[in-house]
C-alpha cells in the first residue's frame, strides 16, 4: 500500500476534515453574530458601516459616485420610562418588537437597510435622494410604530398596553461622503434638538 493510499484511509485525516468543517461553521456563525445587535437581532453599527461602504463601491462601479442617499436616524421616545415602569425585560421585548417592525418596513423597498447600532437607537439607510421620498418613508415608519400595541405587566403586576413611538430625523447626503463625517452630521442633528428624540 502506498503512502498516499494509507493517508486517504487514515482516520486522523477524516477527523481533521470534520474538525475543519466544524471550525469553519463556527467562524461563519461568529462573523454573523459580530454583525448583529443581540437584543433586536438587527444589524449593528459595524454592519451599517459595512453596508454603507458596499453602497459607495457599487455606485462608483456604476459611474454614479455623487448619488445621494438618505439616512433616517432616531430613538424610541420615553424608552427610559418604559424600563422604569415595566422593567428591563419588557424594555427588551419592546426593542425587539420595534426592530422587527422597522425590518418589515424596510422590506417594502429594495435596497433599504435598517440597523440598531446601540440601545434604543435605530438607523435606516434609504436609496432615496429627494426630501419627498425621505419624508414619505419617515412618516410611514413613525405612524406604523406608533400604531403598535404591546401588552405587558408593569412592575406592580398590572396588565397594561404599551404604544411605542419613535422620533425620526433624516439627512440626505452624497454616498461618497466619508462615513465618519456622515455619522458626525447625524449626531449634530440629534444634539441640536435633543427634545425631538
UniProtKB/TrEMBL annotation:
Pfam families per UniProt: GGDEF (PF00990)
InterPro entries, per the entry: Diguanylate_Cyclase, GGDEF_dom, Nucleotide_cyclase, Rev_trsase/Diguanyl_cyclase
PROSITE patterns named among the record's database cross-references: GGDEF
Domain GGDEF: 67-197
GO CC term (a single one): plasma membrane
GO BP of this protein: cell adhesion involved in single-species biofilm formation; negative regulation of bacterial-type flagellum-dependent cell motility
GO MF annotation: an example: diguanylate cyclase activity
Name by which UniProt lists this protein: GGDEF domain-containing protein
Amino acid at each position: 500500500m502506498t503512502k498516499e493510499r494509507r493517508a486517504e484511509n487514515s482516520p486522523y485525516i477524516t477527523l481533521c476534515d470534520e474538525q475543519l468543517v466544524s471550525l469553519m461553521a463556527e467562524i461563519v456563525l461568529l462573523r454573523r453574530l459580530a454583525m448583529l445587535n443581540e437584543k433586536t437581532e438587527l444589524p449593528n453599527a459595524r454592519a451599517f458601516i459595512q453596508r454603507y461602504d458596499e453602497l459607495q463601491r457599487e455606485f462608483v462601479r456604476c459611474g454614479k459616485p455623487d448619488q445621494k442617499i438618505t439616512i433616517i436616524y432616531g430613538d424610541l421616545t420615553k424608552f427610559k420610562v418604559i424600563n422604569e415602569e415595566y422593567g428591563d425585560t419588557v424594555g427588551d421585548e419592546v426593542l425587539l418588537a420595534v426592530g422587527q417592525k422597522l425590518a418589515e418596513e424596510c422590506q417594502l423597498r429594495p435596497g433599504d437597510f435598517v440597523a440598531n447600532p446601540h440601545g434604543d437607537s435605530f438607523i435606516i439607510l434609504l436609496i432615496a435622494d429627494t426630501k419627498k421620498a425621505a419624508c414619505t418613508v419617515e412618516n410611514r415608519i413613525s405612524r406604523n410604530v406608533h400604531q403598535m400595541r404591546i401588552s405587558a405587566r408593569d412592575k406592580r403586576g398590572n396588565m397594561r398596553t404599551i404604544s411605542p413611538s419613535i422620533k425620526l430625523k433624516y439627512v440626505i447626503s452624497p454616498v461618497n461622503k466619508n462615513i465618519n463625517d456622515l455619522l458626525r452630521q447625524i449626531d449634530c442633528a440629534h444634539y441640536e434638538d435633543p427634545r425631538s428624540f
